[in-house]
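tool_call: predict_structure(chain=1)
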Amino acid sequence: MLAELNIRNFAIIDELKVAFDGGLNMISGETGAGKSIIIGAVGLLLGDRANADMIRSFEDAAVVEALFDIRGQDGLRARVREMGFGDGEELVVRRVVSRSGKNRVYINGRLSSLASLAAIGESLINICGQHEHQMILNPDNHTDILDEFGGLLPLRTAYRERYDRYRSLQQKLRGLQGRSTIRAEREELLRYQIGEISQAGVHTGEDAALTEDKKILANVQKLMDFAGAAYETLYGKGGSVLAEFRGVVSAVKEIRKIDPGLKLSEQELEELYYRIEEAAFTLRDYSKRLSFDPARLEAVDERLELLGRLKRKYGGTLDAVLMKQAEAEREIAEISSLGEEIEALTQNIAAERERLMEVAAELSSKRREAAAALKQSVEAEIRTLGMEHARFEAVFADLRGDPDEATLNEKGMDAPEFYLSANVGEEMKPLRGIASGGELSRIMLVLKKVLARTGSVGTIVFDEVDSGIGGATAEIIGQKLREVAGHHQVLCITHLPQIACCGDRHYRVVKRVAGERTNTSVSLLTGEERLEEITRMLGGVALTQKTKEHAREMLLAARG
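tool_result:
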């Protein structure tokens, strides 16, 4: 429940602090005092959009902060814990609206997102005002109301999980079918690519080796000239290196006869001689192997051109070309099995739909049972509110038709909509066609009362629940609000003394001008103060002793 509300620099509110308790809390005040401003501030704690116009004039930021007692709300506490905002019996929510646009949300002192606040806020407070009226009038929300009343939300969650799985399979099938329609063209392209690469007989590193071959083939004459000249210098011509080197060997041999201390052995020189001779013979044989082969050079050029074309088409390297071939072969295998996969998936979808239909049919059947119970409960309650001949019903727009062609959506196979006949002789009409604000307010209150035992929200705020009603009906509405307050904390803004008398506590909203600034304040009324407020609500401007006695009687009667 909402335990404490602090508002600063919001609209005409300078600073407001008010503590609430459980049960039925009544809020009253003159028109324009700022009651709707307080509701707007509470709306910010539920994730409503904020803008700079909300900030009090000449101030930089507005702050709305609330302390909630969440004992007994195990689901909410678990959600808060899972979202990383701690665990405890109290929850503090703070919203800061800045003119600079840097708005902030804090949950238990930790910076949060607006989405997280909205997710938590829906379990904290439910504001039943004009916006809530629009929700009730929207048939899309009637299924949710009926399912909540009938305790069908767990079954619907199970249905939704199966429905999402079914839709996922359908989406996968559409993807496969889309591929199937173009698979002939795709398969033809893939087979061409595989054939082109396979026929080329590509090998990793082949292009580098061929480039080396081309360089040799293009320079054969130069290579022959270099190898021949080197051979002649080392061995072939008179006065060659080896001929001269033989003289060096003889000279060293003679030196060592005289001076054995020379650090150069004949054996070392002999080894060097034979190594030079071997090099000369290698050059001679290399030169003999060389020959200009224009046909081979042309073949190498053609091969390099083919490999270059493949590299340009398939990735820039021969490794990429070979990878493309492997990928194409894998895709061909997938395409070949596509028909079998589509057939298997189609059968799987049919079986899944059959199971989904069973859950949808169970949900639909239980909804109709819940609709009958809701009809009985709503009609019994609304007839106590001055609509003695009203009839209420949840009319099902059946989406089933042929079982093989049943229309399913995320909520099931049917779409209930609330209908109402307010007076004798009137036909049942959709709730969205109700023009009377009083009738709509009474329907809203009745639905809240009927759903009170099933709802998990901690606090319900009724704004303008007394629209279009008065007299005895107002007294009954006050009692209904008290009954709702037996299951939830209720905050009710009212202009009617008959309703205000039924509250466990009564708060008055007052607007005052101090200096040149206007400010709104809220105060909890004591016994005498409450009597004065009820008297004001009864008598307007002219307050008489008789009016005051009437107010006292109303308060005593409400307590009884």
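agent: The first strand starts at residue 2 and ends at 10. Proceeding to next step.
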